């Protein structure tokens, strides 16, 4: 019988087929003695956390540790994809822990966004999943905003474990790297050491800080299939995922017009008055306005050139479509009823549409799996 070889750092079984999964090493290293998986190697030598992604079953098994040993949980979410950041089963394992919701990627938000309203909305969405947050904090892991405060908070946790938790791609690894970088820059020297573990993908670190030793756990990332990010190829994502601060795009729409957000989402004004809408989506996403009666033929002719995304290979994921009715004043058949101040229709992973119309009747069409929602206007 051949023995399963494990990483001497984290205990994950070694494999050389999937770089995002635990225990990855290039095939040429497999034969060596005392092998560190690539992730452990990078952490040890460069302080670099690289994401580890696992399936649902493994995830459940790993995070059960949090239930057994409650502590402080940093629940990292992506401000542009909150729906895609919420971990469906989180309630079950964070029940006895304190949960700090860490809202990442705020560098992408327009400057005039109302953080209080945003915090309230996020708190409400997290609560709706059965998790009661202690607090909501805003950061940009990539730009290193808000990291100092978070590090100060973590450094005080000498009595119970700290867990960093988040869906794949919310920026969990970037945050861990940012925290470790900050810790090691401090005058009072911090040291971070990785402790060999026995679990598959939950990695344990010890940090010596000014108040004592902090035990920090990095949890694996979980993947969804109903997120824009998992439905599009790398080329398509260049148009869709905001890379820099989103510039609002303002449109005055007359009834009977259609607005394409790439070939992903279509907005049509059916009635009401001329109205203002503001798009908060990636600056790269092609947006095209036309008359409603020309919209179908425009789409057929130009989905792969002017509208760019999804490309022919990714298009299949977007063919199964549904529509949502948006109305002001409220109507019983509307999916979203706008109040006096209008509202934001949130397109998870893409951004949002802000409506100012007092008398509005519109239809939004998009893929069935895109979980649209409404919130009070942020801007
Ligand atoms: P993980 O899978 O949760 O560990 O996520 P990563 O740390 O690998 O980040 C996923 C993607 O989000 C990468 O493309 C990062 O560059 C990006 N990202 C992470 N943090 C930020 C941030 O603060 N701002 C922006 N704009 N992008 C970020």
TrEMBL record:
This is Ribosome biogenesis GTPase YqeH. InterPro entries: GTP-bd, GTP-bd_ribosome_bgen_YqeH, Mito_transl_resp_regulator, NOA1/YqeH-like_C, P-loop_NTPase. PANTHER family: NITRIC OXIDE-ASSOCIATED PROTEIN 1. It holds the Pfam family YqeH-like_C. Residues 162-224 form the G domain. Residues 274-375 form the NOA1/YqeH-like C-terminal domain.
């Amino acid at each position: 019988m051949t023995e399963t070889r494990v990483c001497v750092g984290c205990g994950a079984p070694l494999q050389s087929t999937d770089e995002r999964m635990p225990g990855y090493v290039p095939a040429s290293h497999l034969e060596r003695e005392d092998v560190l998986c690539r992730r452990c190697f990078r952490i040890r030598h460069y302080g670099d956390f690289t994401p580890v992604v696992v399936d649902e079953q493994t995830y459940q098994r790993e995070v059960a540790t949090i239930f057994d040993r409650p502590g402080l949980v940093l629940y990292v979410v992506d401000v542009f994809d909150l729906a895609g950041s919420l971990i469906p089963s989180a309630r079950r394992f964070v029940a006895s822990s304190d949960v700090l919701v860490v809202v990442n990627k705020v560098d992408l938000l327009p400057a005039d966004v109302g953080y209080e309203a945003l915090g309230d909305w996020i708190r409400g969405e997290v609560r709706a999943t059965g998790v009661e947050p202690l607090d909501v904090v805003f950061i940009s892991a990539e730009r290193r905003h808000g990291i100092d405060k978070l590090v100060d908070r973590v450094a005080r946790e000498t009595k119970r474990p700290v867990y960093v938790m988040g869906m794949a791609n919310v920026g969990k690894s970037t945050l861990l790297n940012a925290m470790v970088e900050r810790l090691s820059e401090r005058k009072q020297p911090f040291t971070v050491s990785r402790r060999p573990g026995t679990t598959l993908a939950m990695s344990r670190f010890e940090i010596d800080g000014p108040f004592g030793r902090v035990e920090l756990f990095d949890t694996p990332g979980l993947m969804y299939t109903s997120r824009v990010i998992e439905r599009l190829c790398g080329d398509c994502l260049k148009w869709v995922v905001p890379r820099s601060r989103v510039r609002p795009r303002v449109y005055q729409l007359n009834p009977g017009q259609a607005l394409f957000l790439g070939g992903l989402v279509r907005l049509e004004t059916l009635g009401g008055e001329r109205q203002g809408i503001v798009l908060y989506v990636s600056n790269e996403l092609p947006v095209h306005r036309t008359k409603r009666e020309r919209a179908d033929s425009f789409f057929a002719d130009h989905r792969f050139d002017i509208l760019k995304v999804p490309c022919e290979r990714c298009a299949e994921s977007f063919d199964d479509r549904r529509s949502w009715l948006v109305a002001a004043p409220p109507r019983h058949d509307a999916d979203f009823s706008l109040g006096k101040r209008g509202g934001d229709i949130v397109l998870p992973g893409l951004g949002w549409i802000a409506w100012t119309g007092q008398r509005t009747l519109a239809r939004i069409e998009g893929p069935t799996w895109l979980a649209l929602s409404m919130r009070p206007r942020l801007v």
